[in-house]
Inverse folding.
């Protein structure tokens, strides 16, 4: 990247050039390593340019990869060799989890991952590749050549499947709603990148080049979609001009209003109170209200966060500064416009969805874990800027003022842990009630939830996704909280929500419990 300068959030960025036809319709909009244009197929589609093709694979990282290091691997091997070293409380779970990992990984030796037979089948990607990802970690731990061959086969099968070319997606279709993100496709690519990083040192340079070119193409599409969506509210964001604003970023202030499930049937429909009402983040211990949430904050949600995590991690894996810079910029904007100085987030608006009082807190965990994924990879490469990033900027009340603290990932994670441990008491805000009254049934603390009123509780969060941050941010209660949660699981590893066993909010990593710091 040519040149550098200090900009908002201390990020390095490129410039955005926009070209419009005389009618005002989109003719072409330049974006990183390509362009957005209107076609007969799409109102807007991404078209890569020649710079989207790499001529050589990225150099192998010294001392491991970007989602692991040699020193970490030594700890993991000791952990699986002698679980008792972690203490008797956690040893049974470690033994069970390692057994699960081995079974999952070795199943790939006899049965390939399912073939993805259509492009737009997002939900089928939620767990696809999980066995290959598990196998990639097992190869690191055991160095079994058969396992490596199976993972290599999986990686190459995906890049040869035309249904995995994201450029076939429309950024905006001629009809229908505009989607803000591709959640399942992004989490799938994120999982693929993790899998590749675990085994790339065992692959030939020719394989690595094929895989990295394919990953970059998909990452560029995801990056272009995020950039286009957010340029609708901050047209000059990629040149660090946040004074240009439109929509909910521009005056007058647009407070968030929504209809909620007021009758407790786990749905929002005509049977509920019909009026939309202003949404506050939470109700406090003494019935005081948290921040009033903005429409702007909803642009920085868990769906976009995983998309940024996907292209950001690919950027770190292949050393692509353009993708890395765009990921950094997004997380800086998230801290500014969707996080408040008390650690609450715009996603708190979703509390109460699916009959889960803390559903918004669950989504906020996804936002934080997305940043942790990219920040951890960068930190292993010697760049801790995303962990040290802080801002006092904001809009519509999200800015820090007076003696309020600056906003950072550590602040958000710390407050999350305090809420989950009951140190800070917060309750779901109920829009249909004139008088708010926090109580046990609306508390954001419980670790389990009943989806759509089910009688069988599930874990409400993949909280282990916070563990990689423990070595980089100062939140003393984080490890204690996670250890307490894991110690309470005296059975073999259980799936929490359907994404996978002991994994993060996006099922990106294999067992984080085994690979924790």
């Amino acid at each position: 990247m040519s040149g550098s300068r200090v900009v908002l959030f201390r990020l390095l960025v490129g410039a955005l050039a926009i070209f419009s036809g005389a009618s005002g319709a989109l003719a072409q909009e330049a974006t990183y390593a390509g362009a957005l244009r209107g076609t007969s197929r799409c109102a807007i589609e991404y078209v890569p340019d020649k710079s989207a093709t790499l001529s050589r694979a990225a150099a192998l990282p010294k001392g491991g990869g970007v989602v692991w290091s040699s020193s970490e691997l030594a700890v993991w091997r000791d952990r699986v060799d002698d679980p008792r070293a972690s203490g008797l409380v956690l040893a049974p779970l470690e033994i069970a989890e390692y057994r699960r990992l081995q079974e999952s990984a070795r199943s790939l030796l006899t049965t390939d991952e399912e073939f993805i037979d259509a492009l737009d089948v997002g939900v089928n990607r939620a767990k696809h590749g999980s066995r290959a990802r598990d196998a990639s970690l097992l190869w690191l731990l055991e160095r079994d050549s058969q396992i490596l061959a199976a993972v290599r086969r999986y990686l190459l099968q995906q890049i040869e499947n035309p249904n995995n070319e994201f450029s076939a997606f429309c950024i905006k279709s001629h009809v229908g709603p505009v989607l803000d993100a591709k959640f399942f496709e992004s989490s799938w690519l994120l999982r693929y990148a993790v899998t590749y990083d675990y085994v790339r040192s065992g692959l030939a340079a020719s394989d690595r080049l094929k895989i990295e070119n394919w990953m970059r193409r998909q990452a560029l599409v995801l990056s272009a979609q995020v950039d286009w969506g957010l340029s609708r509210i901050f047209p000059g964001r990629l040149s660090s001009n946040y004074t240009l604003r439109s929509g909910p970023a521009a005056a007058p202030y647009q407070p968030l209003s929504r209809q909620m499930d007021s009758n407790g049937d786990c749905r929002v429909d005509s049977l509920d109170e019909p009026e939309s009402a202003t949404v506050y983040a939470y109700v406090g211990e003494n019935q005081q209200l948290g921040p009033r949430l903005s429409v702007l904050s909803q642009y920085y949600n868990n769906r976009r966060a995983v998309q940024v995590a996907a292209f950001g991690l690919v950027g770190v894996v292949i050393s692509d500064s353009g993708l890395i810079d765009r990921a950094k910029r997004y997380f800086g904007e998230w801290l500014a416009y969707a996080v408040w100085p008390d650690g609450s987030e715009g996603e708190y608006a979703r509390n109460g969805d699916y009959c889960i009082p803390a559903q918004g807190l669950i989504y906020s965990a996804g936002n934080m874990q997305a940043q942790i994924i990219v920040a951890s990879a960068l930190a292993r490469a010697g760049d801790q800027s995303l962990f040290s990033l802080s801002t006092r900027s904001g809009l519509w009340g999200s800015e820090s003022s007076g003696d309020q603290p600056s906003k950072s990932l550590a602040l958000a994670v710390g407050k999350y842990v305090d809420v989950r441990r009951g140190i800070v008491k917060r309750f779901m805000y109920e829009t249909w009630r004139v008088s708010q009254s926090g109580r046990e049934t609306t508390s954001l603390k419980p670790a389990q939830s009943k989806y759509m009123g089910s009688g069988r509780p599930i874990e409400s969060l993949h909280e282990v996704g916070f563990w990689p941050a423990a070595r980089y941010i100062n939140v003393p209660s984080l490890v204690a909280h996670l250890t307490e949660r894991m110690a309470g699981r005296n059975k073999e590893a259980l799936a929490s929500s359907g994404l996978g066993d002991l994994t993060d909010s996006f099922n990106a990593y294999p067992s984080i419990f085994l690979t924790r710091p």
